[in-house]
Each structure stands twice: as C-alpha cells, then as structure tokens.
Amino acid sequence: MCVRTFEFGILNWIQANCRTDFLDTVMPFASALCNHGEVWIALAVILLLTRRYRRTGVVLALALILDGLCCNVILKPLIARVRPCDVNAAVELLVSRPTDWSFPSGHTAASFAAVGALLTEKRRLWKPAFILAVLIAFSRLYLYLHWPSDVLAGAILGTVLGFAAGRLTRWVEKKTGRARPVGREGET
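^ that's the sequence the OP posted. Answer follows.
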C-alpha cells in the first residue's frame, strides 16, 4: 500500500468520523494557539520573568529557537512537501491555507519542544503542556493541513530538541562555571 494512500486514509477517516460543529470551532482555535508558537513563547517569557523558574524559561526559549531553525529554516524548504489540502482540494478548509511546506508540522514540533523542555527540567507543567501539544497536533490533522507523518515527525523532532535544549543548557553552565539554581525537583 502506498504511504500517501495510507495517510489519506487516516485524514479522510478523521473527516468522515470526527467532524462536528463543536470541533469545527475548537480545532481552529487550538491550532491558532501555536500559529507562530505564541502559547509556548508566552510561557517561556513568563518563566523567564520569574526568578524561581528562569532556568526553565531559558531551556524552553532555547528549545523553541532550535525548533524554529530546524523546522522552518532547514527542513521545510529542504524537503518541500506539499500539503494534503493542496493534493485533495475538495476538502473544505476551516482556516486559511498555509503558504509554507508541510514537513514537518511546525505547530506540533514547537509544542513537543515545549513538552520536552519542561520534562527535561522536571517541571510538572509538562503534563498540561503535553495535553495541549496533543490537541494542537491533532488539530493539524483535523484541519487537513498536515499528513500524519508530518505530525509524527514534528512530535519526535520537537521532543528531541526540547531535551537537547536542556542538555545544551547544562553543558553551557558546566563550561561557564555557573551552578544550577538549587530548588526542589519536580516543581511547577
């Protein structure tokens, strides 16, 4: 079976079995939360402005920067994958058609980069962030804007970049002699 046929099967199943008036309202909103990473950028700023959680804010901000570079600057133009809504124009879009390429899903990658950053920092906030990330990722399929493999790749890439941001921050702290702030593990 052709991969594209399999992925269309998933997208068309969602359209045939999950579409409701309620979700037609919720999914564009969920997707819009991360149109430019807004929700995660706002969280990073809040954490950066809070002395107790500043390091977590640094890790989250770094994860989002790494994600933006990897997804939008390198991978999307390099792979140049057409979106499913461009291949199957018969599907009625609930949002404006994006003008960039499909692979990987930037919304999903940014969301899971945030989850990875919060998880590597052992912050309990990763749990609600994970729920929101899954909702945003599903919204990209529901809205027929990404192939399932775009979303899967975005989730994997984002998570890896979130963890990489944590490791990079620890490496810089070690090289510069900055000690990690003392605090209880698993807070927030």
